[in-house]
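Risk mitigation, structural track. In case the binding assays with zinc ion fail to produce interpretable data, a predicted complex structure has been prepared as a fallback.
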Amino acid sequence: MGGDGKGSGDPIPEEIDEHYRLFGKEPWEVDYGEKCAVCGSPVDECGLCACDSASD
Ligand SMILES: [Zn+2]
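Fallback model:
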């Protein structure tokens, strides 16, 4: 039990972390501003939300 080497708190290596490569930071490090009026999800600093309508 517990010998598979997969801890729940392990950080994702940069070389395989697609989000980090795209944005330079982890998803939880992105600064979220206002929420999207359409889907109600937080809009990140790239203007992206769950429905992408906030980028207009
Ligand atoms: Zn949205």
